[in-house]
Amino acid sequence: MMKTTPTRFRTLAALAALLLVAAWGCTDQNTPTEPLATISLDDGAVLRGTVRGLDGLPAPDAVLALERMDGSLAGSVTRALTGDHEPAAKAAGVRSTVSDGRGRFVFGGLDQGTYLLTSSLRDHAGDSRTLDILPPAAANAETTLVDIQLTPTGTFLGNATLENAADHTGSVVFVEGTSYVAVTDAAGDYSLTGVPYGNWPVRAMHPGYLDDATSGVIAAAGDSVTLADLFLRRESNIPPTIDAISATTVSEGLATGFSGAASDADGTVVLFEWDFENDGVFDWSGASAATNFLYPAQGSYLAKLRVTDDQGAIGLAVVQVTVDPSLPTAVYVTPTGNDNDDGSQISPVATIGQGLARAVQLGVSLVLVTEGTYNEDVILQDGISLTGGLAVGTWDAQPGTYSLLTGGTRPLRATGITTATVVQGFEIVAASAVLPGQSSVAVTVWNCTSALAYTDCLLTAGNGAPGLAGASGSPGATGSVGGNGGQGACSSTPFVPGGPGGNGFYLGGSGGSGGNSNGNGQNGGNGAFGQGPGGGPGGAGGTTSSSAGGDGQSGVPGSYGSPGSGGATSPASGSVSGDAWVASFGGDGGNGTPGGGGGGGGGGG
User: Which three-class secondary structure state does DSSP give residue 564?
Assistant: First the structure.
């Protein structure tokens, strides 16, 4: 059977009612028992007392020890039972004695100083106390009186076994609320010794098993009490499991977001707890794992999640936390920058467009632009402000100084701005339009709210281009038919008349016309019918040797009809296309008037 002793020395409350009386020449007051008349003492103070039990009866054979705590020890030791007197050396160390049959003891010849008095008795709890012997008491051989009351102790014996185990070693059995502890052997036996008088609860525990408890009473000094057997059942509750755990990576100054999920095979997870710095202190608890925590500086941390189920079992998991350096608050732009740089103050980009793109990537809401010329077209981003006119190198504000933005015919455009966006410190100059009907506008705004504001900006538009030409008019009507051509001239010999008709009673007909270039002459006509003999035939037609006349010239074309009337003038109007103004076109021209008739062709010769 295994025995054990208390893990620390305890002074029980049951040792109350101790009386310490320092006598200053009053050696006969409050004497617990009659003085030991047969004892002779050396010079110096005297310490007397009586040892009693809880029942108030004297406790003989109690061992008492007196030790000076501040130097050497002087005086004599008196055997309480025999009365023999034994002087003690000045540096004798610890002095001891035993209480007599009436529980009395005495230490004599004490110098001034501080002393530790301890007492012990079998089957009783020991006692100790500190006493001061003052100079007057030592000089006048005065007596200090003290009563000691000892508490009876006993032993608890028992057996604590484990469910379904062959070896029952290692269960811890203890008196609850005290330091009296024992550990079971292979058979499960244990012994709790030095347990003070009283009724005490006793508990047994073992990892992986449920606790069991009983109680027992120590009624008298030296009692040995066998307690009821303890049986530790195997722990049937399955601990919860953490299925997921995560922490967001953030920049310094931003809170880290934590989340996690857990399950329990035979119950319910009822509590989530976070130890954000893995220092053993759980900083947060709740019904779920979702929470936030702001770390003081950039760096790497470990955070621990603990979950508890409805039967008290726990599960643990750890997650790595990363806090990056703080994000920039703005993107920097200067004409001598480089669009491949990060846009920081020491590595600015060169264009406003790249500055806006970098701001979107970094999640910042401000682009700072130094003075200088930026030849580009810029489209604003919702919620990202532009501040121009800053000093090169120092990035200080310069009232009255502007960054010059001059790109195409629409160098600065804003579409769909609904979050606070401010443009300030810019001179914006639009190029003159070139294409027909094109406008020149410094700033265009489309579908934006009052969240967009322009402050301290100079706006200059270029010239607009001419409007587009109207469509051609319809063709004029066909001209009327020209008159006939005049008689053609001919240089050939005209027809030659034929000879006269023959003589006779009746006159012959006249001869035919001579031929010309168009053909031979005609035959002469017949003579008239006469009364005489018939006249001879008419003379033969004349002939000509001239050639035929040429063709007459073509008639001259008639005059052109007059032009159609111009189209109607377009009013000064147009419409928005995208985020630009497009002017209206001119109207179509009217039809032309009919042309005049052509002249006739000339005759042939």
Answer: coil
